[in-house]
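Supplementary Methods, section 5.1.

A reviewer requested that the exact input to the structure prediction be made available. We therefore reproduce it here, unchanged from the version used in the analyses.
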Amino acid sequence: MTSFVRGLCQFLALATIFSLVACADSNKRLPHQNELQERADIIFHSGAIYTVDANRSWAEAVAIKDEKIIYVGSDSGVEQFLAKTTRVINLEGRMMLPGFQDAHVHPIEAGMAYLGCSLHDGKSVDDYVRLVAECSKNNPDAAFIDGAGWTMDMFSNGLPDKALLDAVVPDLPVILKSATGHQLWVNSKTLERAGINSETDDPDRGRIDRYDGSREPSGSLQENSAMNMAFDTRPPYSKSQMRAALEFGQHYLNQYGVTAVQDALLKLDGNEAYVGGPTYAALDEAGKLTIRVVGALVWNTDLGIEQIARIIDARNRFNTPRFTAPSVKIWLDGVMEVHTAALLEPYSDREDGYRGDLLIEPELLNEIVTRLDALGFQLHFHAIGDAAIRKSLDSLELARQVNGERDSRHHLSHIELFEPSDIPRLKELDVVANFQPYWAWADKFITELTIPKLGSERSKWLYPIKSLFDSGAVVAFGSDWFVTSGNPLLGIETAITRKDPLTNTSAPFLSHQRIGLADAIEAYTYNAAYVNFLENDTGSIEVGKLADLIVIDENLFHLEPHEISDAQVLLTLLGGKPVYGDWSFTPIEKTAQ
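The structure derived from this sequence is encoded token-by-token as follows.
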């Protein structure tokens, strides 16, 4: 007897004795189908299937035909969909969820960072310097050293020094993006090629960091306009490099159960990895795109209203089965740690009353948002400081007054610091709160670089995730990978515990902002699908939806909160086909954290 027949016989025997689960078989079959059409290609049974439907129901079995779910319910009820050709999979109590969706991530940029000179594994400044030296040694024919992954908390006041790089790579340009994506660490050769010296003024909306008491550049560049001065000296990436980066990025995300994303930095110009629209489209047309991608087209703050024409053109061109671009990314401020986030009140650690600057003037922002909203675009804001959050909401409120209400699903991402009175406005304006929950614990960024710049009172409103849930606003989650890990289970655990999910040794950070597991899962599945305009087809396990599903080795609801991130994704399906793992559920070593 073959293993398939044995499995089939075992399943038929089990199906006669399993009882209904707590949730009723409300979706037994698709309407208006004949018997042949109702036979499943794949049946999963004997599982802990958390559907994330409106009732947060549980089921035991799921049947799939072609790319869609045709049954969700009990083991006994799924028998009607069984045929001789059906692949029968015994979950043996393992958990099934809808595929995770990441509402703010950078798959191509992250892939390029990891395939270049990756500093992600560095735990100290000495590690960074050693890794850069190794990159140079291992690539003797390279024209420059290009990479990413260093973190500001390793350096005094978040600012690295060019001398550290000069000591190991004196003759080649070195360009290293920080983990936040808002800074570059460069050596003297890069500064020389970019024409940046003591006579060079800071560009608009950017900053050239300098040694104390001097105008000599110290080796770090803040925000896009300054960073681009270095990027413009770098040769363009090839199509093969771009494709390799995307293939790395989508595999990385698939291994953590991610099946759909919003790429939050889809550029239309510039000499950078993130001009990724053609790469997504080409991979999809080749039938090899293994994530569903919603692109957020970047608003170039160096250009004006005239760029709307090319944004419209990009939306029209980027429209393949798994890749669309209905969103526009508006980068409104920087980050708190180096005083580039825009605040309502001055930074506490400065005596000059500085509050940070908006990257777009309020009057122009109002025009941009109103015009794009009228054209049917979704607006995706980068807003870290409370002033950036408020101005984002003000511009959206004006657009709503001018254009009327519509199903826009505008969202604010990162939203680190709130002024409390602005929290209810997201619900009032139908704006989604897009948090990166893995950031909501007291790491060195928070304790050494952020809180000293805000003071204790304002710091009580850092990452107020529960307050946004309680307000009735839609809350979606994303990772901002490569800024931090793209593993949703790390973010889910942090949202529940407000502690470091890797060590569990930190004290809970603003513990009253903790949320429950069901809410955290919904934010990373259905609510993220809602942001991506995909909730009618994905985001929950329901009849008629696409079979974007994942299998996890443990039932998350049976684990202690601090154990959640230890669970392993064993299988990821996109449209019923494995894009990570296989039917045996054999654990596979992850490529990166």
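The longest strand covers residues 258-266. These observations are discussed further in the main text.
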